Structure formats: structure tokens, C-alpha cells
Amino acid sequence: MLKAAGRLLAIQEQWDAKQDDLEAALLYNRKLWTVFLTSVTGENHPLPAEIRQNIANLGIFVMNRTVALTTGPKPELLTALIKINCDIAAGLRGAA
């Protein structure tokens, strides 16, 4: 999650110079979220249903924002993806 967030942040901070890297960074983030969502939404996952649903909702947001960035790239649209990834990473590390 932090690697994906870092890639997106680097693009956001240097938009003019790094905008060409956006597609690859979004693909990496989307693949990461696909694996994450597949794991937490499985029927046998030990997390409570409410938490799994919240993560699924975040995943849907991430996917929708990715589409928005693909069709209309704007650096400010990256902020939410970066924050979500950092927050999830902090939670997984137990720092939240």
C-alpha cells in the first residue's frame, strides 16, 4: 500500500514531469486493491462482516477514482487514493 501511495504521491507532486507514469502507477494500485479486495471479501475471511463491507466500499471508491483519473487526469484526484492507501497501511501495521 505504501509503495503504491508513494508512486502516486511522486506523480502528484511532479505532475508536469511525471504524468506519463500515471497509467502504470494506477495499474499497480488497481492490481494491489484487487488482491486486497479478493482476500477480505472471501466468505472465510475472519474479519467481521461490517469491516469487510467497509473495505469493499473503499475498494469500489478506489476503482471508480481510478477510472476518473484514466478518463480525466487531474493531480488533485490522486489525494484520496494516496490517503486511503496510507491509512490502510497504517492500520495493517497497527499504527492507526
Descriptive account of the structure:
- The protein is mainly alpha-helical.
- It has one domain (2-93).
- It is 77% helix and 0% strand.
- It is built from five helices and no strands.
- The protein has helices at residues 2-13, 15-18, 22-40, 49-71, 78-93.
- Helix 1 (2-13) runs antiparallel to helix 5 (78-93).
- The protein starts with a helix and ends with a helix.
Write the layout of secondary structure elements.
Blueprint: H1 2-13, H2 15-18, H3 22-40, H4 49-71, H5 78-93
Helix pairs in contact: 1-3, 1-5, 3-4, 4-5
Radius of gyration: 14 Å
| Envelope shape | elongated
Structural class based on helices, strands and sheet pairing: mainly alpha
Helices, by number, come to 5
Chain oligomer state: single chain
Low-confidence stretches: none
Please give the largest β-sheet: none
Helix content: over 70%
Helix and strand run: HHHHH
Mean pLDDT score: 93
How many structural domains does the protein architecture include?
1
What fraction strand?
Answer: under 5%
Q: What is the CA-CA span between the terminal residues? A: 14 Å
The overall strand count is 0
